[in-house]
């Protein structure tokens, strides 16, 4: 793969009933990100996201459980010099407890008002956290 190629991922803004969003931290890293991951060749973003959520959080979601939010790009936190391009989806979860699996070390329900000091990846902090409240409000009506 060309070294200048962006990292293509599919990730989810998963909100709960109180408007918090689910964030994960991988083993050996310091920053929290949205759950999701890299797409395999010829894998659709929704298929990749469903697979990653099942592997990392034992969360079973299908295409009907997601609404497309958009494509966002920023600096990759865990691969210096690289850009991450993310296909972002939203889903609402009534599950409140998640057991991290695979490369996930920690899972938190995040609220910007309650946990402003949590270290967030650039994509999460700059693009996705600002969308949490509008997505939550839209889904709750």
Can you offer a commentary on this structure?
With 141 residues, this protein is α+β, with helices and mostly antiparallel strands. It is built from 2 helices and 6 strands, in the order βββαβββα. A 4-stranded mixed β-sheet has the order 3-1-5-4. β4 (67-75) and β5 form a beta hairpin. The chain is globular and about 45 Å long.
**First-last Cα distance:** 44 Å
Helix content: 10-25%
* Count of individual beta strands: 6
> So how many helices?
2
Q: Report the average pLDDT across residues.
A: 92
**How large, in whole angstroms, is the Cα Rg?**
14 Å
Strand content: 25-35%
Going by helix content, strand content and strand pairing, the class is alpha+beta
Order of helices and strands: EEEHEEEH
Strands across the major sheet, in which order?
3-1-5-4
Write the layout of secondary structure elements.
Layout: E1 7-15, E2 21-26, E3 36-38, H1 45-57, E4 67-75, E5 83-92, E6 104-110, H2 122-139
Parallel strand pairs: 1-5
Antiparallel strand pairs: 1-3, 2-6, 4-5
Give the gist of this structure:
The chain is of the alpha+beta class and 141 residues long. The protein contains two helices and six strands. It is globular.
Descriptors for this entry?
141 residues; alpha+beta; 4-stranded mixed β-sheet; two-stranded antiparallel sheet; 2 helices
